[in-house]
Amino acid sequence: MYATFWALMPPLVAIVLALITKEVYSSLLVGILIGALFYSGFSPEGTLIHMMEEGIVKVLSDPYNVGILIFLVILGTMVCLMNKAGGSAAFGRWAEKHIHSRVGAQLATVLLGVLIFIDDYFNCLTVGSVMRPVTDGHKISRSKLAYLIDATAAPVCIIAPISSWAAAVSGFVEGEDGLTLFIRAIPYNFYALLTIVMMIGLSVLQVDFGPMAKHERNARHGDLFSASKADFVKPEPEKSNPRGRVCDLVVPIVILIFCCVIGMIYTGGFFDGTDFVTAFSQSSADVGLALGSAVALAITIVFFLIRRVLSFEKCMSCLPEGFKAMVPAILILTLAWTLKAMTDSLGADVFVAAVVDQYAKGFVSFLPAIIFLVGCVLAFATGTSWGTFGILIPIVVNVFEHTNPELLVISISACMAGAVCGDHCSPISDTTIMASAGAQCDHVNHVSTQLPYAMTVAVISFVTYIIAGFTKSAWISLPIGIGLTLLVLAAVKIMSAKEAE
Question: Would you place residue 174 in the very low, low, confident or very high pLDDT band (cuts 50, 70, 90)?
Answer without folding.
Answer: low
